[in-house]
């Protein structure tokens, strides 16, 4: 996720390409109505140039695979992308992961050409582990066993090669191929040794842990936090230190913790702030305000905001109502707290923050996630126009799904409007929402509910919601 306007690589939301990049249901509907060549070109653009802000969290593969099936699309473009020389130069998962996941879904739908292409890439591609995971879910034992020689040949029979093999086995997402190979009379000894080494490595890491131990004092924990921060400034060990403080700190340690939170070194100060916030110390709100205003303590400022966002007290809510008018990060955090835990009296503050964030930071701002949820939780009907704008414009399919949920609670026209296109959305949670809300007066809705209910690739929650909307005399086909 990016706290910025829509990325320049994302086409405008009113274009076919922009709709498909966002994973909107209207993208599928428009593609099916467009000239086939134009629709396939837009589809391939998306599959080969992953448009997601967060490729590890947002869904697109099933969405694109279904459209490929509906358009009767071939795999020449995907194959050319996978076998291109860039595959050996740019080995990051984000270059090929989406294409491989699309192939996996196509294989599930019975596309043998997708299955064969996955096998070829698993044997020779740089992102072979992803392809192997896709095959582990869909291929038969014989084909998986046939990949053992080429896979194990990637790891030389040296101490370094064996160590890398052990790390790969330990990190594998789908264990099925490795279990099959562990039973193989030719390769089993080496694979079993790698599996055992992975377990031993985890045990060794636990033994070598330098984390706080029983008997440490508050001072010991704070000093450890600073030492770890100096060794790894981006490691956020102050969070671990705060959890340790919960186990060792007593009433007699309060002066030391307050002093550390007010003026200690960065990591101890951050740890103390979080601990005091978690325990509801009355002084911590003033300490948080001071920390956020400190221009020389970025780590501390972030920790202070995080500590405030975790607070659940009435005092924190009251302070949030005062801070929500601010235009800095503390004001954003305060509005987020009101969105999560405020009451009807806070609706205007949440609405102002929602509209102001869209106006100043765009439709992809991180702060919108909480504010959108809050608009729905508080059922702020006047927020519907802003929520509709976010729904249309955001490049994040997950934020769009949150906007859809908020619209379901605030916009009476949702069932006959956006809920219809949400039946084709790329996110299963959004499709489930649509299945529960879409008005069935539209023939497209009834037919899509039948498809979702009968599709074995669909999530069970979506299937259940779809079946609940189908009349008993109109069973899913």
Biggest sheet descriptor: none
The stretches of 5 or more residues where confidence is low (pLDDT under 50) are: 1-7, 203-210
Question: What structural class results from the helix and strand content?
Answer: mainly alpha
Morphology:
flat
Our Rg estimate from Cα atoms comes to 26 Å
How far is the first residue's CA from the last residue's CA?
A: 39 Å
Helix content: 55-70%
List strands and helices in order, with pairings:
Elements: H1 16-22, H2 25-33, H3 36-48, H4 61-70, H5 76-83, H6 86-89, H7 93-108, H8 112-124, H9 128-138, H10 141-146, H11 148-152, H12 159-171, H13 176-182, H14 188-207, H15 218-231, H16 237-248, H17 254-263, H18 266-278, H19 284-292, H20 298-310, H21 314-323, H22 329-341, H23 347-361, H24 368-377, H25 384-393, H26 397-410, H27 418-422, H28 428-437, H29 443-454, H30 460-469
Helix pairs in contact: 1-2, 1-3, 2-3, 3-4, 4-7, 7-8, 7-9, 8-9, 12-14, 13-14, 15-16, 15-18, 16-18, 17-18, 18-20, 19-20, 20-22, 21-22, 22-23, 22-24, 23-24, 24-26, 25-26, 26-28, 28-30, 29-30
Tag the structure with descriptive keywords.
single chain; 477 residues; mainly alpha; 30 helices; 0% strand; flat; disordered N terminus
Q: What this model shows, in words?
A:
The chain is built from 30 helices and no strands. It is mainly alpha-helical. The longest helix has 20 residues. The N terminus is likely disordered.
């Amino acid at each position: 996720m990016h706290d910025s306007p829509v990325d320049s690589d994302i086409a405008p939301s009113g274009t076919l390409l922009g709709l498909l990049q966002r994973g909107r249901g209207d993208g599928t509907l428009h593609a099916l109505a467009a000239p086939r060549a134009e629709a396939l070109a837009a589809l391939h653009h998306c599959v080969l140039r992953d448009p997601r802000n967060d490729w590890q969290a947002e869904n697109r593969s099933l969405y694109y695979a279904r459209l490929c099936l509906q358009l009767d699309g071939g795999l020449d473009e995907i194959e050319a992308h996978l076998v291109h020389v860039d595959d050996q130069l740019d080995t990051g998962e984000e270059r090929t992961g989406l294409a491989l996941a699309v192939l996996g879904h196509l294989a599930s739908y019975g596309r043998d050409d997708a299955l064969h292409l996955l096998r070829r890439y698993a044997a020779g591609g740089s992102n072979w582990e992803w392809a192997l995971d896709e095959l582990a879910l869909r291929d038969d034992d014989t084909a998986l066993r046939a990949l053992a020689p080429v896979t194990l040949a990637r790891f030389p029979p040296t101490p370094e090669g064996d160590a890398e093999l052990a790390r790969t086995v330990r990190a594998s997402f789908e264990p099925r191929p490795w279990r099959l190979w562990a039973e193989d009379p030719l390769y089993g000894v080496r694979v079993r040794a790698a599996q055992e080494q992975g377990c031993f490595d985890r045990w060794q890491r636990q033994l070598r842990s330098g984390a706080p131990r029983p008997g440490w004092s508050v001072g010991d924990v704070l000093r450890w936090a600073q030492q770890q921060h100096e060794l790894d400034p981006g490691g956020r060990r102050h969070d671990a230190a705060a959890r340790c403080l919960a186990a060792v700190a007593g009433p007699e340690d309060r002066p030391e913790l307050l002093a550390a939170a007010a003026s200690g070194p960065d990591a101890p100060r951050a740890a103390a702030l979080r601990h005091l916030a978690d325990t509801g110390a009355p002084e911590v709100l003033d300490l948080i305000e001071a920390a956020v205003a400190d221009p020389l303590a970025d780590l501390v400022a972030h920790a202070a905001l995080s500590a405030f966002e975790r607070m659940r007290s009435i005092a924190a809510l009251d302070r949030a109502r005062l801070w929500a008018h601010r235009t800095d990060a503390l004001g954003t955090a305060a509005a987020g707290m009101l969105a999560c835990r405020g009451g009807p009296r806070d609706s205007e503050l949440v609405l102002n923050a929602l509209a102001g964030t869209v106006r100043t930071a765009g439709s992809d701002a991180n702060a919108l996630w909480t504010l959108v949820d809050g608009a729905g939780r508080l059922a702020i009907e006047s927020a519907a126009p802003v929520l509709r704008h976010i729904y249309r414009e955001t490049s994040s399919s997950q934020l769009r799904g949150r906007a859809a949920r908020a619209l379901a609670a605030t916009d009476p026209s949702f069932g006959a409007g956006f809920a219809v296109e949400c039946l084709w959305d790329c996110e299963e949670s959004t499709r489930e929402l649509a299945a529960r809300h879409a008005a069935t007066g539209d023939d497209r809705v009834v037919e899509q509910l039948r498809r979702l209910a009968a599709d074995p690739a669909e999530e069970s929650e979506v299937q259940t919601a779809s079946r609940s909307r189908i009349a008993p005399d109109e069973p899913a086909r």
